[in-house]
Amino acid sequence: MARIQIPLDALTSRLNLGSRFEGVRSQSVSTRFANLKPISEFLDLKRLSKPENFSVAQGRINYNLAYFSSNYIAVAIMLSIYSLLTNLTLLFDILFVCIGLFGIRKLDGRDLELGFARATSSQLYTGLFVIAVPLFIWANPISSALWLVGATGVSILGHASFMEKPIDTAFSEEAV
Q1: Are 67 and 35 in contact (CB under 8 A)?
Q2: Model pLDDT for residues 107-145, shown as the tens digit of each residue
Q3: Inter-helix orientation angle 69-86/54-67, to 10°
Q4: CB-based contact 40:143 (threshold 8 Å)
Q5: Across-strand partners of 112?
Q6: Which of these, 8, 27, 80, 127, has the minimum number of CB atoms within 10 Å of its CB?
Q7: Where does the chain have alpha helices with state H?
Q8: How many Cβ atoms from other residues are within 10 Å of residue 159's Cβ?
């Protein structure tokens, strides 16, 4: 049976995704958030308008994703925090696993000795796994992840497509 090869480059080249994320990898977190635009500029209601057609919307999206990229990352982080705060079972499970792994690593390979029992680190990892995996499945992380993808996509792409470019940018594009 022949494998189906999907040319991802052909799909992503139109949106310019490869070059868009190169600068993100090379910047530190402090530099990244130093580029945050003011909230008054990010939520300027005077610059909101419906794009006339798809090409105008695509131009706005390309410009705004580059210009407000730090703000969009902050929006995605805030939506992630909101998602965890509304799914307390998932938050508890993540904290349970992190604290459990930290506690097992603090033993440095020694056995955990309680007054009545002794448990090896292998038994502790197994116990953590046996408790955390069913709790993780019950917490329904797939719905939280899909909600997060949808809410982030609608928020960011909606803002990017409805926010007009600054006037000076429009004039500089016409001169070329």
Answers
A1: no
A2: 988 888 888 889 899 999 999 999 999 999 999 999 999
A3: 90
A4: no
A5: 119
A6: 8
A7: 8-12, 17-20, 22-26, 29-34, 39-42, 54-67, 69-86, 88-106, 121-138, 141-162, 167-175
A8: 20
Q: What is the pLDDT of residues 10-53, one digit of tens each?
A: 656 666 655 655 655 566 767 767 788 889 889 888 999 999 99
Residue 61 tokens, joined: 């999206």
Closest CA to 163 of 81, 97, 75: 75
What sign does the CA torsion over 27, 30, 31, 36 have?
positive
| Amino acid letter for position 157 | L
Chain centroid to CA 104: how far? 29
pLDDT given at position 35: 80
Q: Residue 69 contacts by C-beta under 8 Å, 6 or more apart in sequence?
A: 24, 35
Neighbours of 96 (CB within 10 A): 15
